[in-house]
């Protein structure tokens, strides 16, 4: 699990059929001191996180595919919570 900050939305004219109806967000991982840590990640969002929100990310691909309901989905990252 990681803490990250939402920096934008993923927009695509063509995407995997399992991702239709899911909101895709770009999330910048953060280090423990709050500095950016690596490249932004594309994550599915079911909680309605907004721009600049701090979120909890999971890279459990199997859990994300179970959530979507398609075992062959390419999804890996999902937002588990929004930090206060």
Structure description:
- 10% of the residues lie in helices and 37% in strands.
- With 84 residues, it is mainly beta.
- The chain has one domain: EutN/Ccml (OB fold (Dihydrolipoamide Acetyltransferase, E2P)), CATH 2.40.50.
- It contains 1 helix and 5 strands.
- Strands 1-2-3-5-4 form a 5-stranded mixed β-barrel.
- It is globular, with a radius of gyration of 12 Å.
- It starts with a strand and ends with a strand.
- The longest helix has 8 residues, at 61-68.
Keywords:
84 residues, mainly beta, OB fold (Dihydrolipoamide Acetyltransferase, E2P), five-stranded mixed β-barrel, 1 helix, 10% helix
- Overall pLDDT score: 94
How big is the Rg?
Answer: 12 Å
Question: Helix segment count?
Answer: 1
Report the count of strand segments: 5
Tell me the helix content: under 10%
Q: Could you give me the name of the CATH homologous superfamily?
A: EutN/Ccml
Within the largest sheet, what's the order of strands?
A: 1-2-3-5-4
How large is the share of residues in beta strands? 35-45%
Order of helices and strands: EEEEHE
Backbone shape:
globular
Low-confidence stretches: none
Structural class: mainly beta
Distance between the termini: 17 Å
What name does the CATH topology carry? OB fold (Dihydrolipoamide Acetyltransferase, E2P)
CATH class value:
Mainly Beta
How many domains? The number is 1
| Largest sheet geometry | 5 strands, mixed, barrel
- CATH architectural grouping: Beta Barrel
